[in-house]
Each structure stands twice: as C-alpha cells, then as structure tokens.
Write a structure and sequence with these properties.
This protein has about 140 residues and is mainly alpha-helical. It contains five helices and no strands.
C-alpha cells in the first residue's frame, strides 16, 4: 500500500510539473486579414494543383476580398498592390474559361502572378509559392 501511495504521488508530481509548451504563432506580428486570406489561397491552390495534374476541373472561389483585406503592416500594401491583385484575379477568370489543353498554363499564370507581387513587397513566402507551380 505504501508503494502505491508513493507511486501515485510521484505520477501526480511529474504530471503537474510538466507544463505544456507554448505554441509560437505563425506570424509573430499577428494574423491580419490579408495574411489569413493568403494562407487560404495557398491551401486552395495546393488542392487545385492536384486537380490540374490529374486533368480534373478546378474550382475557382472568389478571392476578390484581396483588394480590401487589411495587411499586418500598412506599409506592406504598396501603391502597386491593387494592380497586382487585379492581375491575379484576372488570371483566375482566365482559368475558369480555359480548356484542359491549356489548364496547366493558366494555373501556373495564377501562381506566377502571386510570385511577381511578392517579389515587389514581401519576398519571404516566394519559396513556398514556387512549390505550387506545375512543371510543364
């Protein structure tokens, strides 16, 4: 019985002594509307990439909120941002109208629109974005 009490007390002590580690946020500056939207877009295009590679139709959601989404830091949304965003949205419209023969090219044009914008503002995610490209 004494052994049971010691064992139970030891387990209780170690269980209480090990605090769970804090998870660091993805973005140390917080998650802005624009950052959350871009993560949503990345997840969508990952799924779409598989569909394109398999020759299946691609769903094209409405990402027009990119024009009004607030960035983490206001200076990140430079004057040319809206033009890049409009070009991105235009490429999505082109993908909607494309046939299977040009679907890969239209899909890659969307991803390249992301890369061009990020080359001009926030270059950190470019390696992740490049992984979305489909080799021709």
């Amino acid at each position: 019985m004494k052994l049971f009490v010691i064992l139970f007390a030891s387990l209780l002590f170690f269980a209480c002594a090990n605090e769970p580690k804090k998870v660091e946020p993805t973005n140390p500056n917080g998650d802005s509307e624009l950052a959350l939207l871009m993560r949503k877009m990345e997840n969508h295009w990952k799924t779409a990439k598989k569909a394109v590679e398999e020759g299946r139709p691609v769903e094209t959601p409405d990402f027009s909120s990119i024009l009004s989404a607030k960035p983490t830091d206001g200076s990140m949304k430079m004057p040319s941002f809206d033009g890049f965003a409009e070009a991105y949205l235009a490429q999505i419209e082109t993908l909607k109208e494309t046939d299977k023969g040009t679907q890969k090219k239209s899909y890659n044009n969307i991803i390249n629109a992301c890369i061009v914008c990020h080359e001009n503002s926030c270059s950190g995610p470019i390696p992740r974005i490049q992984k979305l490209l489909i080799s021709q």
